[in-house]
Amino acid sequence: MKTNNYKYGSAAESIVYPLLFVMLLIVIWLAEMFVDPKLVQYGVKPGDWDHWYGILFMPLLHDPHHYEHILNNSLPFLVLTAALFFYYRKLAWLVFITSWVGSGIVVWLFAREGTVHIGMSGVLYALFGFLFISGFFKQVRNLQVLSLGVCFLYGSMIWGIFPMDETISWEGHFAGFLIGVVLAVIFRKHGPERPKLQYEIEKEMGIEPPDFEGQWVAQQEQLEQLRLMQEELIRKQQEAMHVVYHIKPSPAREEKPADDNDNSK
After folding, report:
1. Vertex 154, ends 101 and 79: CA angle to 5°?
2. Summary mean pLDDT of the chain
3. Could you report how far apart the first and last alpha carbons of the chain are, in Å?
4. Are residues 184 and 205 in the same domain?
5. Which CATH number goes with the domain that contains 52?
6. The model scores a pTM over 0.85
7. Rounded CA gap, 84 and 127, in Å?
8. Range of the domain at 214
9. Is residue 177 part of a domain?
10. CA 81: distance to chain centroid?
């Protein structure tokens, strides 16, 4: 099996960019915890025109009182972002920024009023939806397996799009997943292709390997024709050698016994 000529991103880009961004998230989280916990108020406040900037700041902010929030977002972020920059080198920034802004806009428009939404999870769901659905369109199993692996490790990912816990921004999760699916549909013709098999490459190059199965079938058909011809030849030979004699026997002569009493003179 050989891959196509698609140019993947470099390993350095796929590792360095996510790491730098996670470091930024940690610095902001530390600032929330030790400098000003009220920074979380810069998250998205649905329908509030005075806080439209929350669309931009929402992914940067995490709960300063629970480290699990930033930890649960950072680990999947590293994996999914690395996959994005490696498999979609030319689209990576466009998909990332659209996921960031798009999920925030959807939350601002449709989420519950009187709430504040913070966290990177909306972007995570967007990347998850994009990579998984795109992998389905492109038939690239690595992307599907990777996304499902993150979903498995990040246990609440599937259930996170449903309103099961009022303290969790399911609207952000659903919005992100929706944005990711839409992006996957839009860019379904871009990105990596399914690796081509050897026979597909040889067929494109005009050096398709012999069709052994077809040759075997043709050979069997020729043998069957020869067998039928041989049977027909034998049948004709037998007919030519078969002699039928038509003998018409002569009528038997009936002798009249002598009559001793015949005194005719």
Report:
1. 65
2. 80
3. 123
4. no
5. 1.20.1540.10
6. no
7. 8
8. 200-232
9. yes
10. 19
